[in-house]
């Protein structure tokens, strides 16, 4: 199977979608990639996991340039804003770069209100400016803990660069 790549840019919006399983706004899997620049993923609802975005199976996600992931909900699973999960050899790689905001997302019955990393997933946060990446008011309601970023014990890496900010709510 060949690789697929999707570019979302120029103020595009992926909003108000409802899905039965995972990836309320976008579901990326099987060696595919998503690049998002200056766009919005908002008000999406997944009945299970990955309210806004879900990356599975050696997928790559690069999100940058004032992109916003806001007000998404994973009703019965991890990753209100973003879920990166994988059990394959290479693993999912999620890159959050300058200007990205992950805010007001909810994992209603699990963990990782903003971003959840499970399996062999890795997240790299690349910033060179002060407060260039923001995680704000993300919640994991089932455990009643505010949760910007959650990493399961199998997740590979979380690299936070200078200038990245969280509101101090980690689960």
Question: What does this protein structure show overall?
Answer:
- 0% of the residues lie in helices and 47% in strands.
- With 171 residues, the protein is mainly beta.
- It has a 6-stranded parallel sheet, with no helix packed on it. Strands 2-6-10-14-18-23 form a 6-stranded parallel sheet, with no helix packed on it. Strands 3-7-11-15-19-20 form a 6-stranded mixed sheet, with no helix packed on it.
- The relative contact order is 0.16.
- The model has no long low-confidence stretch (mean pLDDT 84).
Concise synopsis of the structure shown:
Helices cover 0% and strands 47% of the residues.
Q: Roughly how many Å apart are the termini?
A: 37 Å
For the sheet with most strands, the description reads: 6 strands, parallel
- Please indicate the percent range of residues in DSSP E strands (runs of 2 or more): over 45%
Helical percentage: under 10%
* Low-confidence regions: none
Mean pLDDT: 84
Number of helices: 0
Cα radius of gyration in angstroms: 14 Å
Shape, principal axes of CA atoms: globular
- What is the number of E strands? 23
Order of strands in the sheet with most strands: 1-5-9-13-17-22
Order of SSEs, N→C? EEEEEEEEEEEEEEEEEEEEEEE
> Which structural class fits the helix and strand makeup?
mainly beta
């Amino acid at each position: 199977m060949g690789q697929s790549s999707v570019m979302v840019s120029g103020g595009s919006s992926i909003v108000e979608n409802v899905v039965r399983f995972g990836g309320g706004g976008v579901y990326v899997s099987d060696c595919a990639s998503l690049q998002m620049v200056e766009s919005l993923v908002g008000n999406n609802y997944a009945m299970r996991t990955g309210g806004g975005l879900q990356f599975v199976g050696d997928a790559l996600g690069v999100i940058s340039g004032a992109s916003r992931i806001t007000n998404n909900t994973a009703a019965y699973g991890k990753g209100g804003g973003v879920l990166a999960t994988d059990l394959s050899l290479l693993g999912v790689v999620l890159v959050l770069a300058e200007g990205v905001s992950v805010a007001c997302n909810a994992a209603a019955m699990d963990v990782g209100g903003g971003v959840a990393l499970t399996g062999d997933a890795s997240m790299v946060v690349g910033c060179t400016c002060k407060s260039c990446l923001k995680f704000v008011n993300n919640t994991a309601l089932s455990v009643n803990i505010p949760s910007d970023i959650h990493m399961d014990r199998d997740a590979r890496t979380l690299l936070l660069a200078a200038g990245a900010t969280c509101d101090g709510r980690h689960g």
